Amino acid sequence: MSQFFMHQKSDLVSEAIEGALIGNPWHSLSLLDAGPDIRVVVRNDWDKKDVALISGGGSGHEPAHVGFVGKGMLTAAVCGDIFASPSVEAVLSAIINVTGEKGCLLIVKNYTGDRLNFGLAAEKAKKLGFKVELVMVTDDIALPDNPQPRGIAGTALIHKVAGYAAASGKSLEEVMAAANEAIAATASLGLAFSSCHVPGEKRDERVKEGQSELGMGIHGEPGASTLKTQDSREIVALMAAKLAEHNPDNKKTALLINNLGGFSSLEMAVLTREVLRSPLGKQVDLLIGPATLVSALDMKGFSLSTLLLTDALAEALQAPVEASGWQPASKPAPLNTRQGEKVARQQHFAPSENASTAAIVATVCRTLAELETELNQLDAKVGDGDTGSTFAAGAKKILAELEANRLPLNEPENLLTLIGEELAVVMGGSSGVLMSIMFTAAGQKLEEGEALPQALSYGLERMQHYGGARPGDRTMIDALDPAFAALTAGKSREEAAQAAKAGAEKTAQMSKAQAGRSSYLNQESLHGVKDPGAYAVEQVFARLAAQQ
After folding, report:
1. Which stretch is the leader sequence (predicted)?
2. What is the spatial distance between Cα 301 and Cα 173, in angstroms, rounded to a whole number?
3. Cα separation of 290 and 285, whole Å?
4. Sheet strands (E) in 292-361
5. For residue range 304-352, what is the model confidence (pLDDT) as tens digits?
């Protein structure tokens, strides 16, 4: 059984609907009591004086469709099981309970189950004397030769346009015309790095690592093609070009940037930047998102929808609504910058040559750069998986300075101070600051006349003073402390390397970390895994010993 946050699969959809209603900020929705297995959400304020709008379909696309029920948008949403169309009876129940004299418009995504069940319900309602019309959303352009294009995230735009027309008191014919105008003007294209995780089912792993699937359906259906890339710029350039083909006159558009469920906010922000910097972005007059409007459970992917604007459509999209799932449309904001005063470097040192020192610096930096992936993988077991990248960032910066002959290699006190300054700038998190403290304090001691081993030990003591970690706390200090102690006692690099290795190996047997990210983990997670910082120190000293 695949993992999914729920109690029982049979109750999942009903319990999710209840949660959505309880959390509705306007407290304006109710669950229609029309018999067992009828899951229809309706507006509390509905008085049947305007055209009713009903949409729905399979669940798993939240916030669609319940999130679009509210003043200015849908009158009711009919919810089926996960990715399964609601029954004819459920759709008919919605129609007869919310439709007044002006009639009802059904807004349906173009899938066989939805077409049949909503269509038959519409015919039954007409036979009962209700005025009912149906529009089909066909915005997916992934398969251009498909005679039955799918309805995907652009459906939310149709809800908004039709909702505005209905709220403006227009007739059923006028509301339907507005919806059809928006449908004809809308094009959508999706892309995913992985399929969705259907409750109780095994995840489909057909998309290989490093690849993406263009046009994957919102139920996990195979897309139009597989791309051998996950690069944001390559993907956006391809998708923007395909969407631009549906706007040959370069008309102003509304752009919906939709999260299919599994993209992080960080990724969605990158996506937004890339799209708005593309040729497509120059046509965007209104932006909706980035946000999750029509999801596919937890699919790691997104979709882009464009709607060719007229003044009437722009007005409809910008009208305020009371629907929790809608994201207000707005003008794309320009990127503003404000000139700031740069922090001046505290020290300025003239470059100087020293072959022996250069060799040591190069060995340390290249070792840490080469260990980036290995350290990240090790840190992923006991931390947040970025130790290798953090150390490599600092190492690559110092190595670049070395290769450009910008280091005071013949002045060790200035060299350590300069390294301390650089690491504080380029290394993220606490590691950069801690290493900067150690090198800065060590440089100060060298300037006062201390020998290098004693200066490094003093720098380590300052690191411990400010950072709070001590030997035995399962950090890099467990390898640094014995190695520096060996050097201070006059021992060789080989002996210092052995001391560092012994200290690093001890961290794998420590049952509890007292500092760093590992301190949040339990004994089982830590046992047998070396602290990545300590392992990095071990490897650096091993390379230095081999170099001698």
Report:
1. none
2. 36
3. 15
4. 301-308
5. 999 999 999 999 999 999 999 999 999 998 899 999 998 766 567 899 9
DSSP SS3 for 547: helix
Contact 133, 103 (CB under 8 A): yes
What whole-number distance in Å separates Cα of residue 387 and Cα of residue 379?
6
The helix/strand/coil state of 199 is coil
**Closest by alpha carbon to 54, among 127, 132, 130?**
132
DSSP 46: -
Which pairing describes strands 52-59 and 301-308: parallel, antiparallel, or unpaired?
Answer: unpaired
Chain centroid to CA 1: 26
Closest CA to 37 of 80, 98, 82: 80
Secondary element (H or E) of residue 422:
helix 412-426
Residue with tokens 């007739």: 171
Predicted model pTM: 0.77
447-466 exposure pattern, b = at least 16 Cβ within 10 A, e = fewer: eeebeebbbbbbbbebbbee
What residue has token string 């300075």?
A: 401
Contact indicator for 313, 179 with CB cutoff of 8 Å? no
Angle, vertex CA 261, rays to CA 259 and CA 264, nearest 5: 75
Burial class (CB in 10 A: 0-12, 13-18, 19+), 273: middle
Q: Residue with structure tokens 């349906």?
A: 108
Q: What is the DSSP letter of 69?
A: B
* Active site positions, annotated: 219
- 97 three-state secondary structure: helix
pLDDT of residue 347: 63
**CB neighbour class for 20 (10 Å; exposed up to 12, middle 13-18, buried from 19):** buried
Is 33 exposed, middle or buried, given 0-12, 13-18 or 19+ CB atoms closer than 10 A? Answer: exposed
Over the stretch 499-548, which tens digit does the pLDDT of each residue have? 999 999 999 888 654 544 444 344 444 556 889 999 999 999 999 999 86
Contact 263, 300 (CB under 8 A): yes
